[in-house]
Design brief:
Elements lengths: L9 H17 L6 H20 L7 H12 L7 H4 L2 H8 L7 H11 L3 H4 L12 H4 L4 H6 L10 H6 L1 H12 L3 H6 L4 E4 L6 H16 L14 H8 L7 H10 L4 E4 L10 E5 L5 E5 L6 H17 L7 E4 L9 H14 L2 H5 L2 H5 L2 H11 L3 H12 L25
Parallel strand pairs: 1-5, 2-4
Antiparallel strand pairs: 3-4, 3-5
Length: about 400
């Protein structure tokens, strides 16, 4: 690494900019000395520019219009980045906010800086975020392997929080600002207040794993139907059914990730879009139970089928009793429940009234699903989680099927 020092004047600033351009053009691989030099140089430039050039960023709509004029683009030319002619018109007239997907496409396709696009129109330039980097759960992230190539102590990691977390987000293909510090299109279902920095770190880890998942067939919107979900849940009849889920979803162009939750996120599962525009379903296996696994999985896939779009690009779900449930969550619950046990069957099921073990097993055989799913439905409806707890091999049966899961 070349000798780097604090930038003190305009001449040193110009020299540092030239060095930055050379490093950017070289596109160094993560973890190399050149990549580390790029990170340090970026920080030095940012410090100098914040102190000496406190210019306000342009309004995102002004930036888009400027790029249109610069490149001779019409509103029709923005459709690939924004989604439709009506959406383009609404965005440019300030009637529709930019979604994370739109921001990503405009940044990648037209080269508009992401830090400009993530601003609310007319908002002030955000304050320095150095203190926010310390709010990430650095020690827990280090323990769970979030920081590739770093072998220092938790205390050392905290001193390098900005660099380590920044690298994580770059590997994930996202900006921390879009997930934590500025607005987001995330939809959260929670029984307690979620730590948004921990939530963003967890999402970045999921998206990093998604990026490493390899190529999949293109996802076709509308391909996740009720019958698709019912075909999937029939895998539950096998004790090894959860291990078969990644391949099943991959055939439909959906990435499946298992990642342990971080403290104070209270997460069971999530649905989101990765940097390639692919749906990603992620489970935490917070509760190592068969019935919880299958309901959470189907709930997140219901979000993919019903709600994942340019306006709503991330869903985070705490499925504990007591979590706030809105219309979107009701729709996801309804589709998941219908896929697991059809309402027409459930209304007249003997097992529903008798709560008898043999009746539960008979209904499970009829539907070709695991009996623990039916027992879980009975417990949920009765709000009595002591019912039918024995004999269905429900507990501690899922995590062990995912070797990479950090128990």
């Amino acid at each position: 690494m070349n000798h780097l020092k604090i930038i003190k004047n305009d001449a040193e600033h110009q020299a540092a900019l030239k060095a930055l351009v050379r490093l950017l053009e070289a596109d160094p691989a993560p973890g190399t000395p050149q990549a580390d030099e790029l990170d340090v140089l970026s920080l030095l430039l940012e410090q100098y520019e914040q102190a000496n050039y406190p210019l306000e960023l342009p309004d995102p709509l002004e930036a888009i219009r400027f790029r249109m004029e610069q490149q001779g683009l019409t509103q029709k030319d923005l459709i690939p980045y924004i989604g439709s002619a009506s959406k383009v018109s609404e965005v440019l007239n300030g009637k529709r906010p930019l979604s994370i997907t739109m921001i990503r496409r405009l940044h990648q396709g037209l080269g508009i800086p992401a830090e400009v696009l993530i601003r609310e129109p007319g908002a002030e330039l955000p304050a320095d975020c150095d203190e926010d980097w310390q709010r990430f759960p650095i020690a827990e992230m280090l323990k769970q392997g979030y920081f590739k190539g770093f072998s220092g102590s938790p205390a050392q990691a905290k001193t390098k929080a900005r660099q380590l977390v920044g690298k994580l987000f770059r590997r994930a293909g996202v900006s921390p600002d879009t997930l934590v510090f500025c607005r987001t299109t995330a939809h959260r279902r929670a029984s307690k207040q979620m730590n948004l920095h921990a939530l963003a770190a967890w999402q970045a880890r999921v998206l990093e794993k998604a990026a490493a998942s390899g190529s999949l067939p293109p996802y076709q919107p509308g391909s996740v139907t009720l019958e698709t979900l019912r075909d999937l849940v029939r895998l539950s009849w096998s004790e090894q059914g959860p291990a078969l889920v990644p391949e099943f979803l991959a055939r439909h162009g959906i990435v499946f990730v298992v990642e342990k939750h971080l403290q104070n996120t209270y997460l069971d599962g999530a649905a989101m879009v990765d940097a390639q525009g692919r749906p990603v379903v992620a489970l935490t296996l917070r509760h190592d139970r068969i019935d919880n696994f299958w309901f959470t999985l189907l709930h997140e896939l219901a979000h993919v089928a019903l709600h994942l779009n340019d306006e709503q690009t991330s869903f985070f779900d705490d499925l504990s009793p007591g979590a706030k449930v809105d219309k979107i969550e009701e729709e996801a619950d309804r589709l998941a429940s219908e896929a697991l046990i059809p309402d027409a069957v459930w209304r007249n099921a003997t097992a529903r009234k008798s709560r008898d073990r043999n009746d539960v097993i008979a209904l499970a055989r009829q539907l070709n699903i695991h009996p623990a799913i039916i027992a879980g439905r009975i417990r949920h409806e009765a709000a009595d989680y002591t019912l039918l707890t024995k004999g269905f091999n429900n507990n501690k049966r899922v995590r062990k099927q995912f070797p990479d899961f950090a128990a």
